[in-house]
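Researcher: Batch entry, complex prediction.
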Amino acid sequence: MEVSSENFKANVETAVVDDNLKGAMGKLTGALRPNRAKAVAGLPEFDALRDHGIAIKMHTLDHIDTYLEQFEANVVANGGHVHWCADEDSARQTILDLCRQHDVKTVTKGKSMVTEELGLNAFLDNHGILPLETDLGEYIIQLRGESPSHIIAPATHLQQHQIKETFQSAHTHLDADRPMDTAEALTEEARQELREKYGAADAGITGANFMIAETGSTIIVTNEGNGDLTQTLAKTHIVVASMEKILPTMDDAGVMLRLLARSATGQEMSVYTTLSSGPRRQGDLDGPDAFHVVIVDNGRSKMLAGSEREMLRCIRCSACLNHCPVYASIGGHAYGWVYSGPMGKVLTPSLAGLEQAKDLPNASSFCGKCEEVCPMRIPLPKLMRNLREQQTEQKMTPLKQRVALSLWSALASRPWLYRKLTGLMTRTLARLAGKRRVFSWMPMIGEWTKSRDLVAPEGGSFFDRYHARTQPIKGADHDDRTQ
Amino acid sequence: MPAATQKTPARPKKPSSPKAPKVGLFVTCLIDAMRPTAGMASVELLEAAGCDVIVPTAQSCCGQPAWNSGDRTAARAVATPFLDAFDDCDYVVVPSGSCGGMLSKHLVDLFADDAPPRHRQKALEIAAKTHELTSFLVDIMGVTSPPGRYQGKVAYHDSCSSLREMKVKDQPRQLLAATGAEVVDLDHADTCCGFGGTFSVKYGDISGAMVNDKAEDVRAREPDVLVAGDLGCLMNIAGRLSRLGSDIAVRHVAEVLAGDLSAAPIGGGQDDAPSTEESR
Ligand code: SF4
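Model: Structure tokens for the complex:
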């Protein structure tokens, strides 16, 4: 998918005045946040489970080569095939080649963020293969020609009335007066539309929440069961997964699944947890004839060796998005790529390039809520700060900012001089503000005053008042001049 | 609702008990320049708790604006002058969770790697003895009853750094309740107000949307006064309240706890009732 994160500021400007978006984001405070809180409160050992999960992930990342090879060996032993892809070009081409090899014309798809990363739908479409999204949210945004705005709830930026309008204009073969005013009616309509397509598809493409080295299995979780139909009814099942989805054992997956569902939606477990361990064997009632796993690197190896390594622990639960006040104010599209919210602020610069996404790591108040709720305790603010530091080192930050910071630091590192100057400034400002005690506009900080007043200083400084009280020995205020 | 305040009886001179813990106040650049009353109130609270307070002059800012902007060199330059300033203090107390977090959680990272070992050592020492003001009073000094009296409804805003980095939550609420105030919580008490230092002037649209949500939460509670332990949040929320035409008073928590309402509230708000404090 094309990266448009350079337009972040412009995207934000439109997003913050979008009333539909504001209404849709109410789902976060109204449902997702309280649901997670309840699920966590209901499991006293949640924190211990987190520590266990983190230990599993750290161990796995330390030995990722071994586990990936073990996984491949087991997939092959089960009768499947593994394809290694270093970047998005090779991943797209590999998937297209597989489709051609199996004479695939139509594809059903389960929700997969890595295929969004690859821009797979548009690519297959351009090559005459029609991919149909089967996750309800993905189906809706596919009809609207949009990209996902959330990693597990791709249509979370939409309100119900917008979904109704989308279905009205897409499903023209249905009775125009059908009931469409409840979420259930809309879900049922999508289900009916999709049902006939599953059986007709030549291949099912899904992602993987986890790949299990000891068994050669891939796992997906869904709440709609669409993933099962996608992968069992088609003749060919292609799994696309980024390399860090590997876990050593099925027991490890048990730990992760419990963390994932609670952190994501506040469920104890997702409704469907589906394991795929190769093609249909003799005697199996269903399953695909061919099973392929496409393992995508696309920047992960580089992250493994860099300062963003901890980000590879991410299990894509979306807790950090759901709890982020910035995400809640601007929605997912403003971030300009597949991944949004705090995890997107680290992943996009790491995978797509810092130059392309300069604003993302900066657009955070560092409130720390993301790190607090992340089941993998990924220090997202710290990782964003690392990226800010890289920007400073590579002189990517605006010249104005660098000059301002160095002037300020030259001053603030001389406390005595600093106080003289700030004292002068604050006395002037206090006098100018007078009885109103606020300014509604101030040069240089228009970004502040466009939505709030600037509070005037009280007048005088703390140090003046404190020294007046304690009657300092003459010159006491000067003794730091030499430091 | 009437909000009345009462000032401490005549301020005692510095306590000189030999056992009094020596506390260095890290004033913070915002309080020094914008809200001296909050700094004086902090000194008063510490002295009333039996501390021997000093305020080293070799301090300006904790360096956080540069640290969070990814400029390690600038942040080190600003932080270096105060590395030695608290040598003979038992504790460093900060009337701000955010600057407190910088000193106790980030200073060590700032002076990691290639920093002179002496600086690293100093950073470790400061980190180990730094506390946010209200948590210091309650957790270390065992204060249960602060000098101020306040009859009115107080909403306490949790700053993110106080809450998450400094583990401050119940302490200020306990102290506020002990002044006689009715303490209320905001609806989304653990959600950021959108200040975030330079974030607020770099990403005004996002920060503005966030502070609007917070100001609406404050207005819904109808407090007589909104307090917090961080001046950045207070200037942010007060600025939005003022823009919305609200006259809810906004103050640093130390002012209410010390019973020092001598300064007009932060921003454009008004104290509800005639204050009964003495003139300074
Ligand atoms: S960064 Fe953490 S909270 Fe965010 S999606 Fe990944 S695992 Fe979940």
